[in-house]
Amino acid sequence: MCFCILPVGGCASEATGVRGDAGMKALWSTAIMGFRMYFRDRSSVFWGMMFPILLMALIGVAFGRVESMTMTLGMVTGGTGPLAAGIRTSLGRVPAFRIVDERNLDDALRELRAGRRVLVVVLPEGGGPLDAYVDTSRPQESQTALLVLERFVAEANLRLTGTRPAVEVRAHNVSSRPTRFIDFLLPGILALTLAQNGLMGVSWTVTSYRERLVLKRVIATPLNPSFFLSGLLVRYAAVSLAQLAVISLVGVGIFGARLAGNPLLLAGLAVLGSLVFTSMGIAISTAARTPESANVMASVANFPMMFLAGTFWPRDLMPEAIRPVVAYLPLSPLVDAMRAVGARAEPLGPYLPGLAYLAAWGIAALVIATRRFRWE
Amino acid sequence: MTAAVSVANLVKRYGTVLAVDDVSFEVNAGEIFGILGPNGAGKTTTLEIIEGLRRPDAGRVMVDGVDAVAAPRQARARIGVQLQEAGFFERLTPDETLRLFSTYHSRALPSGPLLQRLGLDEKRNAHVQTLSGGQRQRLSIALALLNDPRIVFLDEPTTGLDPQARRLLWDVIEGIRVEGRTVILTTHYMEEAQRLCDRVAIMDHGRIVAQDTPRALIRAHAQQTTVVLNLEDGRLDEADLPGVQRVVAADGDMIMHTIDPQATLHGLLDLSRTGRIRYRSLRVEEPSLEDVFLHLTGRRLRE
Pick from B83, B92, B105: which is nearest to A216 by CB? Predict the structure, then answer.
């Protein structure tokens, strides 16, 4: 039997039953009643909002420090000469360094190995070289710290010899406001929640409706089934919007994140994301026999995206080898667009190809969902 | 009388299993028609083909003048369907459930009076998940009546219910007929078929083995009346009484199967008058559809 999911056109083979305006009524009542059902399941509502919020809190605490880029520098003072004092004072002015005075080198190195210092500098007694210690087991941090130190020394030398540098670098900040990690994180969490709802929530719910023969009840009516399925899409979009509103409020109100962009644009992106991932959830449900197996299948799709689509940290930080692959995850363009709008208030233009790619996933999922939908 | 439903030479195969094997019958407008048979006889499959939920491999189905195989959705618009063991949206109330499903039909009865009629009035705003088995079954029937259909299909409406809930449902089903609707139901309770149905088709292994009014079926296939006697004194065997073909003793009762109940009873009374036997109780049981099924298939309908 063929069932069409889109109300437009409907199943042309049959010219009766509920369609047209009556079908739209069916669509809305399916969505509204579904919305009610969702909010009556208190624990689902609670955890559906708590999970992303907890995730945001945990990730924010775990990785939030990276953003500030202050490196703790342990300083061991070998002597009290004017040069040492000069270096001490000047280093203290480097914004990237937070300076801790150490009692002796051994203590300082212990702190370095324990990861509480990025760099240990020993100030020379007289002229002599500046000894710097790093822990190469943390290559990124220690290299950055060394670079900053070397540059500082080079500048200091120039200044001491009174030479003007031949070439200078003038750095210009293009960000209107420094993006902090939480600003970066919140849109990622919002996008992730959309994927989570669609893949995990919808596939579970639809499969359990089928297993409990609720869908059979629906198909036993003369309704054109596309209206019912469209009603599900609307229902989940509405649920996701409500959920995202709460998460955003918590993110902004409690975690101090900033949503810079137009909230309506963000909501529009959320609706698009919800439609795509709900379609994917329904597509998954057509392949699953039980809600449990739907859950496993959805997890397989959801978990790699959760970590690789750039939700928690930029995709640029990922190993070169997988970067081209993760860019093609359907969640990636949604994360990028929501972050551009949410965190940086950028115009959407450059992100439209990515969103088109996302929509293509949605259409493919919808085709599978429609073709293979089973009512019992 | 016009046929509300007519089914001709229906065949449905699942792999190598013939679930429905050349089934034909007609249901008259305004009657309660029962399909009686054990689990797995093919009752539900037959019903779901008529409802347009399954495609037959062969055969013709007309529902209220509509070809249910060619235009299943059009057929569904004319019927009310109560599905066996179908679930509900557990977090909606009965009232919301009816209002939701009413948008799935092109016409619908108002929810309030319907709930009242099915005795769900006080539960109208409780979540469906709090309803008892009998209440859920009545809600299911309310859904079947929602579009004010001329023909109502009830698939095992009383399975799993306690006797009291079952009697309540029987009243509901009889009420549906009184309103002039045609009812087609499946059951594996012979008592239910006997009590409710104007006509019964007995189904076994995908085939209809007999169909007629319960009375005619019994007359044709179960001639033996059962006489149960609790003896205080004396004993009996087949030779003592006219018409008796078999005597079985069980729990102090003598169970006699007779093809001539009148002669058997006369004989019994004679024996009792002459003092050869004394009995505490005497009970005459009409043959039932159970006996018909036993006679036709050699097996019992099992609950």
Answer: B83
Mean pLDDT of A287-301: 92
A221 touching B, CB under 8 A?
yes
Pairs across A and B, CB distance < 8 A: 88
| Number of compact structural domains in chain A | 2
Is A33 close to B100, i.e. CB distance below 8 A? yes
Question: In the CATH scheme, what is the homologous superfamily, with its name and number, of domain B3-218?
Answer: P-loop containing nucleotide triphosphate hydrolases (3.40.50.300)
Find the mean pLDDT for residues A305-326.
84
How far is Cα B89 from Cα B139, in angstroms, rounded to an integer?
Answer: 12
The range of the structural domain enclosing residue A139 comes to 69-161
Assess B273–A contact: CB distance below 8 Å, yes or no.
Answer: no
B224-286 is classed in which CATH architecture? 2-Layer Sandwich (3.30)
Q: Are residues A341 and A289 in the same domain?
A: yes
Using 50, 70 and 90 to split pLDDT, how confident is the model at A79? low
Identity of the residue in B76, B92, B101 whose CB atom sits nearest the CB atom of A37: B92
Distance in Å, alpha carbon of A299 to nearest chain B alpha carbon:
25
* DSSP element (H, E) containing A98: strand A97-101
Instruction: Give tens-digit pLDDT for A98-122.
Output: 888 888 888 888 888 888 888 888 8
Which of B73, B89, B103 is facing A25, going by the closest CB pair?
A: B103
* Residue A354 · residue A330 · CB < 8 Å: no
A interface test, pick of B54, B55, B73, B100 with most A CB neighbours within 10 Å: B73
Pairing verdict, β B278-285 and B225-233: antiparallel
**Rg of chain B on CA atoms, in Å:** 23
pLDDT in the model for residue A255: 86
Query: Are the C-beta atoms of B44 and B185 separated by less than 8 Å?
Result: no
List of chain B residues whose C-beta atoms are within 8 Å of the C-beta of residue A235: none
Contacts of B176 (CB under 8 A, 6+ apart): B145, B152, B183
Has residue A215 got a pLDDT over 60? yes
Q: Do A26 and A110 have their domain in common?
A: no
CB contact at 8 A, B30 and B176: no
pLDDT at A64: 64
Q: Does the beta-carbon distance from A36 to B92 stay under 8 Å? A: yes
pLDDT value, residue A320: 81
Which residue of A1, A4, A209, A217 is the best one to mutate when testing the B interface, meaning the one whose CB has the most B CBs within 10 A?
A: A217
The answer to whether B14 contacts chain A (CB < 8 Å) is: no
Stretch (H or E) spanning B152: strand B151-155
Banded model confidence at residue A368, pLDDT cuts 50, 70, 90? very high
The ipTM value here is 0.84
